[in-house]
Amino acid sequence: MPGKIAIAAATGEAPSTHDPLWTRIQREARVAVREEPLLGALIHAGLLHHATFKAALAYRFSLKLSSREMSEQLLRELADEAYASDPALAAAARADLEAVYDRDPATHRLMQPILFFKGYQALQAYRIGHWLWDCGRHDMAYFVQMRCSEAFGVDIHPAARIGTGVMIDHAHSIVIGETAVVGNDVSMLHSVTLGGTGKEDGDRHPKIGNGVMIGAGAKVLGNIQVGHRSRIAAGSVVLSDVPPCKTVAGVPARIVGDAGCSDPSGTMNQLLGLDGVF
Q1: 53 vs 98: CA distance, rounded Å
Q2: 17 lies in the same domain as 143
């Protein structure tokens, strides 16, 4: 389903003159510098200095996750390597950016999530960590996970599998476990946990379908299935499978009605009405 703008790309990265997304972001950045000169250095370093979208993402990754233990230069080289070797990383970042821009009413410019929104930044950091994991570089992937948790308050195991077009709004205290799977076009708010139920090993975390909306503070625990285009109410504790296109709420969560629409993650309607539907 098309959003406000068509962002998601199947492959690769084009020069800024052939990339409508990056051209628009840089145009927004120049306007922002005029409107708030005190942010000029930050915006130039983060956006206007870079020729491509993925170069700006690599810079932001290295800036936010660097520490006394790992320099910004080394992390920048790592991110550049990741984006160069796997075009799907930049394509996913574009789809995630469109998701935030379409679904979050606080997002008025495409540049905002790149510079200011820790949910978007943490998700892109996870994606590099997952690339490292798939390359067999597990210790470096764990380092990225650790720094992402320290810098953003978002703890996603690098082995978890997350689709594209994902929005993590506010993002504080997000936890996603090792064997969790998150589908495409999912929206979740702060303090969501996709966790296990104890010390069991193996496949032990939730599988979230496409188009699911997970409300703030919801806990989804165990190797359970949450069906496509379902909704989980804020504060719910989900311990069993959720059928597709249903709304669940409560502790423990139970089905309280249908999802009410074909695009719950896009509409972001989080209210429970008298009929039991969000």
Answers
A1: 14
A2: yes
